[in-house]
Design brief:
Layout lengths: L2 H6 L8 H16 L8 E5 L7 H5 L4 E5 L3 H10 L6 E4 L1 H5 L6 E7 L7 H14 E12 L6 H15 L2 H11 L3 H9 L6 H10 L3 E5 L10 E6 L1
Parallel strand pairs: 1-2, 1-4, 2-3, 4-5
Antiparallel strand pairs: 5-7, 6-7
Helix pairs in contact: 7-8
C-alpha cells in the first residue's frame, strides 16, 4: 500500500465525528483568511475530503479541488455537483491547465507524503499556474524531529479544548495498531527544516517567508507563504 491508496480507502484518521467537525471548522477559518479577494481563483491541491470547501468557496470567485485519490474525487464530485463555483479536477487535469489560472494555491498537509523530487516538481507546476503576484500557501510541513509523539501531544491539547479528549486517547490507541501507523513506519514522512523549504521555494521562482501560526491545530509544524 502507498499513501494515495491509504487515503483512497476507508480509514479512521479522525477519532470521532466531533474531531472531524472541529478540524474542518478550524481549517475553514484559517484557510479563508488567505483568500486575497472575492474575485480570486483558488486551487486546493491535495484537498482530501474538503469539508471546508463551501466556506472557502464563499470567499472567492471559483474554487478548484484536486486530489490524487480517485474515490475521494468521486465523492467530491457528488457533493459539489450543484455548485457552479466549485470544480473537482484530477492531478492530470490540473497539470493541463493554462498558465496563470489561479490567484491562490493551497497545499495543506501534503508535503510529508511526497518525495523531495515530487515536491520540487509541484512547486514548479504551481509557479506556472499562479498569475503574477499570486500566492502559494504551503502548510503543515513537518520539521525534522517532530514525530508521532509531538503529533499526539498536539492532538490531545486540541481535543481537550474542543471536548473530545477521552475519544482522542482511545483513537490514539487504535492508531498505534492501524494501517496509518504501519505506513508511517514503512514509508516514513518527509521532513524539512525552515531554511530548506525557503530554498526550495526560491529555486522554484518564489519569494517566500514562513507564516506563523501554522494552519490547523498543530503548531509544531510550519506554514509558508510564497509569492510568484
Amino acid at each position: 500500500m502507498d499513501w494515495v491508496s491509504f487515503w483512497d480507502g476507508a480509514n479512521a484518521i479522525y477519532v470521532n465525528d466531533r474531531h472531524k467537525q472541529v478540524h474542518y471548522e478550524r481549517l475553514a477559518s484559517d484557510l479563508a483568511s488567505f483568500v486575497p479577494s472575492p474575485a480570486a481563483r483558488v486551487l486546493d491541491y491535495g484537498c482530501g475530503e474538503a469539508l471546508a470547501a463551501l466556506a472557502l468557496a464563499g470567499r472567492c470567485a471559483h474554487l478548484t479541488l484536486s486530489d490524487a485519490a480517485p474515490r475521494v474525487r468521486e465523492k467530491l464530485k457528488g457533493r459539489f455537483s450543484g455548485q457552479a463555483t466549485i470544480a473537482v479536477r484530477s492531478v492530470e487535469e490540473v497539470e493541463a491547465l493554462a498558465d496563470g489560472s489561479f490567484d491562490l494555491v493551497i497545499v495543506n498537509s501534503l508535503a510529508q507524503y511526497l518525495s523531495r523530487a515530487q515536491l520540487e516538481g509541484l512547486l514548479g507546476l504551481f509557479h506556472r499556474l499562479l498569475a503574477p503576484g499570486g500566492r502559494l500557501l504551503l502548510a503543515d510541513v513537518i520539521p525534522p524531529g517532530v514525530g508521532a509523539a509531538r503529533d499526539a501531544t498536539a492532538l490531545l491539547g486540541f481535543a481537550a479544548r474542543e471536548g473530545f479528549f477521552f475519544a482522542a486517547i482511545l483513537g490514539l490507541a487504535r492508531t498505534a495498531v492501524s494501517p496509518y501507523r504501519k505506513l508511517r513506519a514503512d514509508l516514513g514522512l518527509s521532513t524539512y527544516d525552515e531554511a530548506d523549504v525557503l530554498d526550495l521555494l526560491k529555486a522554484a521562482g518564489f519569494s517566500a517567508t514562513r507564516h506563523r501560526p501554522n494552519v490547523g491545530h498543530n503548531q509544531a509544524r510550519m506554514a509558508f507563504v510564497a509569492i510568484r
